[in-house]
Amino acid sequence: MKDRERIFELRKNLIDDWRYRGLSWQEITYKYRVSKRWFYKLRMRFLLEGYEGLRDRVRNNSNRPYRASWQERLKILDYVYYNPTHGPRRIAFEDPSIGLSPTTVWSVLKQEDLNTRAKRRLWAQAQGRRILTKKEKQLILAKNRHIESRSPGELLGIDSFCVSVANLGRVWQYTACDTYSSYGFARVYLEKTSDTAIDFMVNHVLSRSPYGKIRRVLTDQGTEFYNARFKDTESAFSFALRLQSIRHSVTKVAHPWTNGYVERLNQTIWQEFYQCRLDKEYTICDELNKDLDAYMRYYNFKRVHSGYKLVEGGYRFPGHAFFDTREKDKIIELKY
């Protein structure tokens, strides 16, 4: 008698003891040296399938993967060509005509070496389909989207950012940049309020610009520029601009690149001015503003700028383009 038959006869005797002799599970587990769980498992198999359910179930030992038909493979590959970022589950559910489970779809993709999203994208590109990433799409859109300004003062971008300075602690710098000439203004304050924003605009931007030069100002929705809580109420900064016959526009929330000119100027000032003075200590804010004014004179009149608007206009320095002159002797007397 083979081992399988011996095991079957033993299990059959176990069930007969429970069925005909009325032995309890405690007596059966003690007599046959089996666990309670195993006894109830055999009893359930007997109740469902009879004595044949007590036999060992023969498992299929074949390790061959599922081989889908060539029609099913073509449907999957055709779907992947147009949707390379979709996974097996979505492929199976999105296209009912395939008629395969997600596991089978994954098996087919694995056999074709397309089981990852990156592999599917590369395969689709190799087949002639151009797959653009999100960043590439944004770059293409950015080529046709830029700030249009045809003359100095047509649009002035203003922003503020926080800087930590030795002894002074946290200070706020207001920065303004003309989008046509890249001419810059900068001033440091101890706090960021609408009063300091108005002081920067009136006393340090308009006073250093030709009369009537600034026609529109673009800012973010910071509390110093915009009344975000009561949008129907005009902010103090907007009111001050309206008195000067200047339009005030704000950018969309969480879209700093809309005011990219002044954001780039902030980065330049941080890299070329503040990072070179991290060890220098200032006792009052006027000392820092004095050094900042000296740097802005260098930036506007001595630092060569390669912006495309300056190059197209034949200028090399932002100050020449902003004041519409190329003679150095006319620039020296200007404050900046």
| Terminal residue distance | 107 Å
Per CATH, the class of the largest domain reads Alpha Beta
- What is the count of DSSP helices, taking H or I runs of 4+ residues? 15
Based on helices, strands and strand pairing, what is the structural class? alpha/beta
Order of helical and strand elements: HHHHHHHHEEEHEHEHHHHH
Quick one: biggest sheet? 5 strands, mixed
Shape designation: elongated
CATH homologous superfamily placement of the largest domain: Ribonuclease H-like superfamily/Ribonuclease H
| CA-based gyration radius | 39 Å
The total beta strand count reads 5
**Contiguous uncertain segments of 5+ residues:** 327-335
Write out the strand line-up for the largest beta sheet, numbering strands in chain order: 3-2-1-4-5
Note the beta-strand portion: 5-15%
Can you tell me the CATH topology of the largest domain?
Nucleotidyltransferase, domain 5
Total domain modules: 3
Which percent range fits the helix content?
Answer: 40-55%
Mean pLDDT: 84
